[in-house]
UniProtKB/TrEMBL annotation:
Family annotation (SMART domains): AAA (SM00382)
Taxonomic lineage: Bacteria, Pseudomonadati, Pseudomonadota, Alphaproteobacteria, Hyphomicrobiales
Domain ABC transporter: 5-233
GO MF, any single term: ATP hydrolysis activity
Protein name: Phosphonate C-P lyase system protein PhnL
Family: Belongs to the ABC transporter superfamily.
Amino acid sequence: MTTPLVVSELSKSFTMHLQGGIRLSVVKNASFAVRAGECAVLGGPSGAGKSSILKMAYGNYAADSGQIIVQHGHELIDLVTADPRTIIAIRNSTIGYVSQFLRVVPRVSAVDIVAEPAIAEGLAPDAAREKASTMLARLNLPERLWQLPPATFSGGEQQRVNIARGFITSHPILLLDEPTASLDRANREVVVEMIGEKKQAGTALLGIFHDQEVRDMVADDIIDVTGFAPARAA
Ligand SMILES: Nc1ncnc2c1ncn2[C@@H]1O[C@H](COP(=O)(O)OP(=O)(O)OP(=O)(O)O)[C@@H](O)[C@H]1O
């Protein structure tokens, strides 16, 4: 079986336009792989480049050089050189992403926000809403909130909507950016369980977890990005 996500010699710098166009190198020659059924965790101190790597793996940040090879259906695609249309197709069916914060859509209910990616994946709308409700119940979101738009929800409530939305599909690769950051212990445990189920189903997970306890429970591999962070003078 092909490894779903293989990153090779990936480098990234930012051009600081307000500081005379100097280039700040943040990731240098990052190389690692994430296998099916495994959760790899990006580790290293604040500012080491973890989020930048995760954003490149979702096609949000452009890389300067290197490769991010993704198994997309029967094809192997390099995200670094893929065109925007291909990146959208990959996000629809191959790579899911749970960000720290929910992007709230005005007037769309929590249950519809969660159901949307499942409908995009081909599930009938009623079945998708039912699945969304099951996930929201599991994440202890009070039922009175399900039909409301999440704009006024608390940080933890919004994060649970976001997690349900990210976990509802069966994307073979799932990227997790601090999915448990604003959750209480009971809900953190639910997320840890859900990650375990994804692993069982053969999903390749790549995440950032600042919470050491959660990290220890989910990580099969810790990728220390300090080794990929260039000296700041570079
Ligand atoms: N859009 C940007 N423009 C300029 N510099 C950026 C940008 N995004 C990140 N950086 C810089 O890149 C470096 C790596 O940041 P990144 O967010 O990837 O680190 P991190 O390891 O995820 O940190 P943390 O654990 O604090 O979230 C930092 O020095 C940061 O200031």
